[in-house]
Amino acid sequence: MTSHDITTPSPNKRARFSHLPTNEEKSYPIVSHDSQQEPPSQLGTSRRKLVSVFSSNQSIHKLTEKIVRSYSNNNNSCQDDGTECHDGHQGKSNNQEEGNDVDTLHKAVRKDSDEVEVTESNLMNPFIDYPHLRHLCGVYKFENDPKKFCDKCFCKVCDSLAKQCVAWDDHCNACDTTGREDVKKSKATNEMDDQDIICLDDDDNDDYDDDDHDDNSDGMDIANCLNLETQNDGDHDNDEQVISDGFLSLDENDLSIENNYDHHFDTGDKDLIGQKSRKDARITDVLSHNLRQLTKLSIANISTKIRNGTIDSSQIQKMQGDIPQLNLHSSFFVEGVRVGWPYPAIMRPQRQMAMHLVKAFKNQRHVVIESPTGTGKSAAILCSALAWQRYDIKTNNACNITKIIYCSRTHSQVAQMVSSLKKTPYRPRMAILGSRDRLCIHRDIRPRNGVDSVHDKMKSKDNVNNACQLRVGNTEAYRKNAMNSRHLTYSDDNPPFHHPGDGKGSHGGVAEEVTRNNIDMEEDERESEREDSGWIASEKSKMCPHYRQLTSVAFSKKAFEAFVPDRERVNCCSIGGDKTKFGAHDIEDLVKFSLVPNVKKGIALYRATPGSSYGLKLKQTKGERGPVTVNTVHPCGAAAIEGTIREEDTILSINKLDVSGGYELSDVSDRIRKAQDPLLIDVYNGDVNDVDENGYSVESACPYYLSRALANDAELLFCPYNYVLDPNIRKSLEINIKNSVVVLDEAHNVEDTLRQEGSGKFGEIELLEMNVLLSSYASRWKPPEKNSPYKRTEESLSDKIPGIAHDLLVFLDKIIDIMRQSRHMFENNQGKHGVASVTEEYRTFKCSDDKEFEMTYNGPNGSGDGNDPVGCKRFFSQFSINQKEIENIQNQMNSFHEHIFSKNGDERSETRNKLADRLSKIITTLCAAFHLSEHYYISTVITANGNLEFATGSIEGYTSQYKRKPRSIPQNPPRTSPNQQPLPRICNHPSCNIKSRGTISHDAYCDGTTPRWESHLIINLLSPAILMAPLLKDSRSVVLASGSLAPIDSLCSELHLLPSSDDPKENTQTSQESSDDQEAKVSDPLAATSGRLQVTPQPLEADHVIDLNKQLLTVSVGHFPDGSQLSVTYSNYNKTGFHHKLGHAIAQIVDNIPYGGILVFLPSFSFLRKCVSTWQNSDIWQRLLRSKGEVIVEPSLSQDEFEAARDLFNRTIEKTKKCVLLAVFRGKMSEGVSFNDDYARGVICVGVPFPSYYDRSISAKMAYNNEQRKFRSKALLTGNEWYKQQAYRAIAQAIGRCIRHAADYGTIFLLDSRHCDDGHSYHESGICRSHTNLPKWMRNSVRTLRKDMRPIGRNDLLGGWESLQKEMGHFFQKARTHSAVVLEKQQHEFKMKQNKDDELLSKQDLTFDHRSGQ
Question: What is the mean pLDDT of residues 219-228?
Answer without folding.
Answer: 35
